[in-house]
Every structure is written in C-alpha cells, then in structure tokens.
Amino acid sequence: MEVITEEGTAKRSGSPGISKMRKQSFYDNIAGYLFIAPMLILTVTLVIIPILLSGVISFSNWNFVSGLDGFQFVGLDNYTRLVQDESFHRSLFNNLIMIAVVPVAMFLALVLAVLINKATYFKTFFKVIYFMPFISSFVAIALLWRVLYHPNNGPINGFLRSIGFEHPPMWLADPKFALISVMIIMVWTSLGFNMVIYLAGLQNISRDLYEAADVDGASPLRQFFRITLPMLSPTSFFLLITGVVGSFKVFDLIMVLTGGGPAGSTSVIVYYLYEVAFVNLESGYASAMGIILLILILLVTLFQWVGQKKWVNY
Amino acid sequence: MRSIKLNRVIVTVFMGVAGILFIMPFLWMLSASFKPELDVMKYPIEWIPSKWNAVENYKQVWAGAVPFTLYYWNTTKVTLMSTALSLIISAMAAYGFSKIIFKGRDILFLVVLATFMIPTQAILVPQFIMYRWLGLFDSHFGLVLLAASGVLGTFLLRQFFLGIHDEIIESARIDAAGHWTIFMRIAMPLVQPALATYMILRFIWTWNDYQNPLIFLRSDSLFTLQLGIRKFADFSGEFYSLMMAGAVSAILPLLIIFMIGQKQVIEGVAMGSVKG
Fold it and tell me: Where does this protein chiefly localize (chain B) (predicted)?
C-alpha cells in the first residue's frame, strides 16, 4: 500500500520530486534501522546467537567449567543418548500428560465465560477474581499449595477427612498423585487467562445470529452448540496452541513445588534440562535437549498453521 | 422481564459462590499469615483467627534473619528498569516496523517474530556462558537486559501503530518533522493505552520472574524477591504462618497494581492475546 502511494506522488511531481524522493527514502532507510537497532541488537545477541550456539554445543560433550580447551565434537552422541535416557523419557511423558490441562482449563473457562457473559451482574468482579492466580508469582503459588496439599494436616485433606474419606491421597508426597496435583494447580492458574480470552471472543459474536435463532425457535442449548461454539473456534484454537506450547515451558512451578520429585514423577523436559545443565554441568547434553524442545514447539506451531486453515470456521 | 432478572440474580449468586471457592486458597493464605503457628493447620479451618499473631509474623518476614527489604528493593529496581527500557526499545522498534519504509523491513520483522517461538530454556546454557564472558553474570544490569529485549512488546505495540493513519505521519513530514519528532510528539501519545497495557504486563512478568534470577544471580545481596521468598521458605522450614506471611508480602503489591490497572491488564491480554 505504502509503496504505491510513494510511486504515485513521485510520478505526479515529476523529476525534481524523484530526487527528493530518493533523499527521502535514503533518510527513511537510516531512520528505520536506527529505530529498530536497540531491539534488534538485543534480540540478536541474547536470542539468535545463543540458539545457534546451542545447536553447535549440542554436538559436543562440552561443559562450561572446563573452558574452551575441553570442547570436543561428539557427533550425534547427545541425541542418541536422549533416545536411551529414561529420565528424559519420563520427563517427556509427563509433559505429554500435562497437555491434558489445556482442554480441561478451556472447557471450564468456556462454561464460566458463557455464564458470566450472559447471565450475571458484576462482570468485572468475576474477571478480577479469576484473573488473580494468573498475575501471582509461581513461587508464592507453589509455597501456598505445598501447605494446602500437606498430606497429614493440610486443609485439603482435613476437608476430605471431614466428609468421610478415611485415607485421602498424599498428593505431592505420592508419586502416583504428584503430577495430578501439579496439573490441578495449572488449571487453577490458567483458568482466568482462558476465560478472559473467551469473553473477548464472545463479545465479537453478532447478536443478530442469536436473534435470528430465537425467531426460529432454537433452544439456548442448541444455540450454544450451533452458534457459540463454531463462532468461537478461532479462539479455542488459539487457546489450545498457546496452552500446549505454554505447558511445555512450566519451570518455576515445578522447581519450587516439587523439584521434579518424588522419584521423578513430576519432572518435565525444562526441569530435567535445568538439572542436566546447572547441576550435572553437562552443557552439550542439555543443549541437545533444548534443541529437541525447540523442535517440539515448532511442530506444534506448524500444526497451528496447517490446522487453522482446516478446522477453524470463520 | 422480571423473571429474567430473577434468573440473573440466581446465576450471579451461584457464580459468586463458585468465585469465592476459586479464590479460597488466597483467603486461606491471608488468614494463615495472621495466625500463631499452632492454629494454622487446625481443622475445621478458622477463617477469622481466634488468636491474632499478625504483627509478629510480618515482623519476622520483614525484619527477621532474611533481608526481605533488600530483596524488595532489588526487585523494585530491576522491575522498574526493565519495564522502562523494554517500553522504550519496543516502542521504537514497533514504530520502525510500522511507520517507516526501509529495505528488508518485512524480512527482519519475520525473523524477529520467529524468535518468539524459541523457548527460553533452550538458550539458557549459551546465555549463561555468554553472560560470564561478557561480565554480565551476577549483575542486575544483566537481568534488566534479558527482560528488556521486548519482542512481545514490539509485536503488541506494532498492532497499535498500524492503526494510526499514514496521513497523520505524512502531513507531519511535510511540515519537515523528522521521524524522532513524529514518534515522540504524535505516535507515542496516540498509543498511550497500549503503552499502559504493555507496561503493566511487563511489570508483572518481571516482578514474578523466578527462572532468570535463579540462573543469572549468585550473590545473596543481589537476590530478587522471588529468590528471597524461596530462601525464606527454606529458612522457616515448617513454620507455615511465616511462609504464608512471606507469600502474601510477595503477592500483595502486584495485586494492588492489578486492581488499579485491571481494565488495562485484562483488555490488554485479550487484545494482544499475549501470554508471558
């Protein structure tokens, strides 16, 4: 668009205009680079160079304590090791299970959003309430839930005992329940975000559609399935993708809440990566894991591009 | 009409109850932070403490063995500096990418956008090594730079700059205003709401960040609040009342900021569909 107007004015004003235009575009080039320079320099040095380095280091058995002398290429060794590493498998598996948080949070958020949008007073009040966990730090949230989940005398088990469960789960202390416990917290923290996005989506649906459906005598339930749900499909798809990508990046919560335990039952890729890189000091191996993580996220994003065209109703 | 309204009241009450259940953990935390240690784990829960120990608990947090005030100050400093720097850098880049035509602009923007997909954990090792070489390791300045790069802010603000009509920029240029003048005098004031949104979001994310301080700080005197409460929690061991007082102290300032700017935060999140 802008290019066309530029040419248009140049033609109209004749040859002196063209030289002025050239000067102008020269000035624009300089100004453009200057404006984006600070951001670009930071992004290149802090993100682009590191990811390239990460790729290089992933083919070595380097650790950063040994200095540059200890740098040795080992080919694909790190990657083949990942294929055999059971701790990595378990972390990857836990990550895949944790994806289940996304549809659950989305479903609850959708129900809440529809109710709040159509049938309540004090909308802002509800938005604020459900948004509170989202803006609280994961460290504080993890400390809080660690106490709530306390197996012997925490309030959750106190409640469960009072309504008749003799032997409530040990939550974070039990390898079978630890991951579920973490996932409950994740649903709790992400509900507000999902709900707010759904509310925004609901506002965009034209009222005419519902009025037309009312005239045709469609029941509210039918309206929900035939109008609301399809019209929200772009929103749902967006939430699904950001949710899945986000679930791969949960680090703070795991780190403070369980430290991957008990017995590795809540270890996830990013946590295992941290352990390998900064506790075991195996930079090469950790970098290989980082690259695999990147590839996983790229795959999800690719799926987004393809899927958006196929499954989303506009 | 009347019956519809009644329905609405019923749903509101029902939803209100659900909402209170939802924030019960926070209420429990607040109540526990006021109690003497022995009453914290009592069941049935005493939502309003029968014995108050609030002053002593918070005194332990703020004036106890762990230098909480220092951590608070460190976090405030890092957060304010990151937010300010990030705001300037991303607003400039956003203006450049939307209102100036220059060679390679669209390709550069795509490259920048692509970095968005890179998970921070995948570049932690090289960043750590580079920081040690560059002498940025274990410094607040290093943390500020990490939070300031602002790809997200660039993307968010660009959407708003695109909404400014080109005629406004053009007419200013005919009056011989340079891009910097246009940026400062015309473009920035026009996107003020977006700037406010991004500012609050950046503030919240930096304040809450745990991963970067954990990796890039070592000296206790530089610790941020998030590292601080973790340390305080380890320090107070099984003293849950103190732990909760620490957690409340960490969350409260943000909650207040959020309450004041809730409209910007919620609308901003919905608009830019962004997630930290």
Answer: membrane
